[in-house]
Amino acid sequence: MRIEVRDSDRLRIKAPAKVNLFLEVLGKRPDGYHDINSLFQAVSLYDELTFSITDKPGVMIELTGDTSLPTGDDNLVSRAYTIMRSNFNLPHGLLVNLDKQIPVAAGLGGGSADAAATIIACNLLFDLNLSRTQLARLALEVGSDLPFFFSGGQALVGGRGEVVKSSDYPTNYMLVLVTPGQPVSTAEAYDLLKMDLTKPKVPFTLPPCRDINEFIVALHVTGNDFEDVLGASYPDSVRIRDVLLQAGAVLTRLSGSGPTMFGLFVDAPELGRDATCDWDCWRLFTVKPITWRLEVV
């Protein structure tokens, strides 16, 4: 998270997307969630949110960028504010100007990042003085991906998302994110896995890596459990993987529950807009891994 502007009644935050450098779904839990094992990495693709205190309780969202995003009570920004208001009896509301650049329902955690930014904004604007641990616990009430955004930008994530262990793997590489036009709901993706309440599998342990070459070798042993089940329903993911490999990616992978695919490049990639690619339907972003100081919140 990057706090750009902070005044007594106004705050601007840049909320980053994330990718899952690997993702295992270990099993279904009795509470209906799934246990995961994943390496989350924040990247330099941002939504920008400007929060202003209003006299009227509640939250009003003004959109720029991708204006197709719903702005009602089911928006994660609204849900995050509602949880903070109900827990701390907030005396005022928020006007939120959201410049939406992270694709929606794409496996990049954009909604979760926006909700985490809202929790940070409530903490700062209303002088709640909550600790990072308290903020992450509240964030889990909104969604499973949210606690990660209270880490330093890279973390091994377990449980349903509440177990966040900061990590220090290499970040000297670039990623090309390609999002096809067809969104994928997280619930739909988990339904395709068809996991019952069975004994969970043993999670993979990513070893320490001294440099980017060791890191790439280690990541090749991993995968994303959603790739196989989504391949038949979303054939664009296979085509995108082929395009990224032809461009020189040393690793390709689905992020989250999709449909965004990413390619990992050691050197700056060159992707031409040739006739074999559906550029009119795909969105492409070249990004870098980012981290931030834990004290920023």
Q: Major β-sheet, in short?
A: 7 strands, mixed
CATH overall fold name of the largest domain = Ribosomal Protein S5, domain 2
The N- to C-terminal Cα distance equals 8 Å
SS elements, strand count: 11
* Overall mean pLDDT: 90
Radius of gyration: 19 Å
Report the CATH C-level class of the largest domain. Answer: Alpha Beta
Name the poorly predicted regions. Answer: none
Order of helices and strands: EEEEHEHHEEEHHHHEEE
Shape, principal axes of CA atoms = globular
How many independent structural domains? 2
Number of helices: 7
Structural class category: alpha+beta
Q: What's the architecture of the largest domain, going by CATH? A: 2-Layer Sandwich
Question: In percent terms, what proportion of residues is strand?
Answer: 25-35%
